[in-house]
User: Fold this.
Amino acid sequence: MAGATSMHLGSDHASRFESKAATRETPLVKWTILALALGFFAIFLLMPLIAVFVEALRKGWETYVSALVDPDALSAIKLTLLAAAISVPLNLVFGVAAAWAIAKFEFRGKQILITLIDLPFSVSPVIAGLVFVLIFGAQGWFGPWLSEHDIKIVFAVPGIVLATVFVTFPFIARELIPLMQAQGREEEEAAVVLGARGWQVFWHVTLPNIKWGLMYGVILTNARAMGEFGAVSVVSGHIRGQTNTLPLHVEILYNEYMFSAAFAVASLLALLALVTLVIKNWVEHQAARSYRETQESAS
Amino acid sequence: MSTVKSFRVLPGFNLTLGYTLGYLSLLILIPLSAVFLKTAELGWDEFVAVVTAPQVVATYKLSFGASLLAAAINAVFGLMLAWALVRYSFPGKKIVDALVDLPFALPTAVAGIALTALYAKNGWLGQYLEPLGIKVAFTPLGVLVALVFIGLPFVVRTVQPILEDLDTELEEAAASLGAQRWQTFRHVILPILLPALLTGFALAFARAVGEYGSVIFIAGNLPYVSEITPLMIITKLEQYDYRGATAIASVMLLFSFALLLIINGLQAWTAKRTGRDR
Amino acid sequence: MTPKLKQSLRRSVVVLSLFAAGSAFAQSTILNVSYDVSRELYKEINPAFSAAWKKQGGADITVNQSHGGSSKQAGAVIGGLEADVITMNQSPDIDILVERGGLVAADWRKQFPHDATPYTTTSVFLVRKGNPKNIKDWNDLTRAGLQVIVPNPKTSGNGRYTYLAAWGYALEKTGSEAGAKDFVSKLFANVPVLDGGGRGATTTFTQRDVGDVLVTFENEAILIAQELGSSKFDIVYPSLSIDAAAPVAVVQKVAAKRGSQKVAKAYLDFLYTPVAQEIIARHDFRPRDPAVLKKHAAKYPAIRTFTVEQKLGGWAAVQKAHFADGALYDQILAKK
Assistant:
């Protein structure tokens, strides 16, 4: 499940290909590919992004700002940040533990375990929300017990957090597993032989090697956590100012004919996505640099 | 297993694996098993009747058909985009490269309303498409557009690193042996890219089948025409039919799991082909 | 387990239990779980109730509101969303709360006046300005080539009323079930988009420019004409429509647990007071209070309506004959 969630450290090598006849296309082919690729990019990626901002500012800055400082919007922002602030660390701890077990040791059933970790990625978000209703809902397994002890899980904040943890589950683990596999275990083993304790090994040997990958995973997890709609929609009670996250708030505004306000809040989320991408690129850049430095010092 | 154990120098295996399994069970496996247990309340015959009802079958056709098509479109254009990003220099390249990940970071609901605003018959793109007889919003085509949007990063990001690592010597050798550029691509480059391309295709497909947020705004949600399977689950839920909802959910879950096994197999193949460790 | 891990786990447990505990001292709030298009109404009624309650010597009270598709909301209450009161647009969404878990008293219709419906509305047509397709009555909606926008009858009360109104009209015209089925089949063959709720359908019709006619609640139609400019749409009243009374109930099981029975009942009683009825009229629903109704009479053209009980044998029968899996509605869609 690498792909979109994999950090790639390539820098721009286009000149390497363009300088040689053998790895170059005729201008006609080149321009056709470029036109098709960029046209596709413009229609499918750029236009929707621009549309969000244009629609958001259609009624001017004042409407835009007032949509964002509305108490319901602010409480939605708070809840969204809270859900992310809880689910990211949880999945971070899990991701590191899982990657350590999978990358540093051999055991039977590893492939199945990796597939199971990937499962939330391909489970429909609707199902992700549904399962928690089945378990914690009033008619669910623990419903009567929870209700007796006056603990609310679904249709309250814990349910939103659970659903968020579920949908962002694999990203950090999947980022770290290949990275730690590639690094092997010689360094750690050497440290152990030299007398380091387990926790010291991780802190002083492993962590410096994986910190960029870890950060990258955190960024992706955070982005997904803040943007999840389908799963959260099923477990949120849709109570104004209480259990609405930003994406749900967008839907509500949209349903109240406040299109500009809806797009204003949407643009905040889009902005968040853009900031994520900027940080991501910076992390990749840093990672590439530290990678090069290790290569140089090794040679 | 025991032979491996004797070589184990590093600490923490039991702790980390135990924690991994515990956390995985608690948050993913037990919750998902609830779907199957609830489904089991239906008898086998009832289960079959629910998941093969004509309206439900029509949603499978749309969900799987549109997802396959979207993944195929992404495979073609994603490959081109990855190719352009790796092989050509053009202004704004860094921005294009960064924005490829947008669908991954953008909330699906936002994507949904933005796409609907674009492709409705009074939208920026819709107003030019409608006179040509192409209706996108509120048709199966709209579902396709949304699924293409969310699937794009997966193909680009799986193919891109492989393209970057590709040795130029192979192509030079092919050229010196008199191969045309197209022949080189077809017989030298494509076979190397194929596993990654298939992985990207499968990822985009897996993501698309379950997608809900972005599709719901742009699809017409018409039974037998533009209704997707996740919506069918929601509709059942809203009629208080939990068993029916979980029955369809189990079908989707089994499918997802099978697909993931295939994807992981493909990735192992990629690793073998290219000697990369991912 | 490492100390750090323990600490972070403990911290998250603390955070989680804080939220869980939040409910225990929340009696100064009640939650009204309602349907999709009532949000503006209750946004105005809630502060009015808080003020009236305080005036009567009650404590400070905040009414929280939650909106969504009617059945989805009822589902959430069944699933454990702690609503003190439920205000819906169709009875089946309250009856299900009696059936599942005994959340609402079986005799809820008897607990408030007018079968516990503080206001009503009806299904009308919204057409594009000047009525270019010359749509006058239900039979115009079955014309070939016409596009009708309706929310999904399976998931929205609004859509369900539309379907039943058309059925009632056809039953009267053709005099037979078969004739009605044929008529409604033709009508739904003209539906190009089925949105999940009333608001989705409105957006499709007004913002996306899809369809020749939107069938929706009268209050929604008046609101659209106001919000989005009366220069763009006209409202058409059919010769016969359905009485879409909006039922309310105290969710007694929740209220008993939270100790909010008194305030919950007072809240629903408040809906029948002249103050609330006036707000209701301002939001274009038809109030029950004759004086208020008279004052706003200009807004509500006379229209002949029937109730589900009168013509269709009650909601339970309708549910079984029309909306159950494989029943008439499913058959009609399958025929397409």
Remarks:
- The longest helix of chain B spans residues 54-87.
- Confidence is low (pLDDT under 50) at residues 1-6 of chain B.
